[in-house]
Amino acid sequence: MTSCNVTIPREVQVFQMVTAVPTFILGVLANSTLLVLFCRQRKNCSDMMVYLANIALADSTALVSLPFRMYSYSNHWPFSVSSCLVLVSTYFVNMYVSIFTTVAISVVRFVTVKYPFKARAVKSPWKALVVCVGIWVVIGSLSAMFHSVDAPEANGSNFSCFQKNSEEPLPLSFILTLDVVGYLLPFVVITYCTANVICTLSRSNSEEVKLRKNKAIHIMAANLAVFIVCFSPFHFGYLLKFLAETYWEHNCELQQFAHSFVHVANSVASTNCFLDAFSYYFLAKASWGTLREAWCGTHSRERGSIVI
Question: Whole-model pTM?
């Protein structure tokens, strides 16, 4: 149990607000565009469009909690305990739905490039839909874990939502589940698949083919970079806070640093809600034609394709 009184410093609150406003605006615009595109093209969509739509849906839902999170960081929660638990679950569930959908995309890429004759076994819109539904069911069924470890009292008042309400460290089992299952395992799979696909695509002698493959390589590198930048600090922060509260409970300076780091990392992780859309879709030049057709409701003879 820590005896230190940690707070969210003013500079951290400013950083949270500076990142939250563009994240919310850009996230709503980018993800709503992708969802509109998917709805307009749903009869002719590919498996990748299903995965992209699933990420856009998860990111859009996660954005719903963002204004409430910003309010709760500087105020006591004025609503019911159940509303706090729902919003906390919404935030975590949609974050990990996005992460594991990214894993699915990486695996499909890997199979398609490394084993093209087996690609049909994993590439179809219906199979992608089954995978996405499975991800929602599994992550959603585990959602109780996200708030049960530090839930306010059922009839509690004057508590803070999206912040720890107990002086006890979060359980080690919870931290390991977040860091190993929720981050390290996806990171290994995504990195392995991406590295193998990039190495395979790099082996090309044709200049024309090289240009197309280089574009795909840049997009995959951007996807991996977004994953690392957004989610590495977040998961490291929770581990750091656990270690500080468990082994250095009387070191108030370290306690305050870990507390501030977690809140900064949470803000960085939230930027994934709009960076996903740009790294997966808007970096693909060929997709602009499809986007234009989707908004206008028209179809050209050569429809643009999403390159990922």
Answer: 0.85
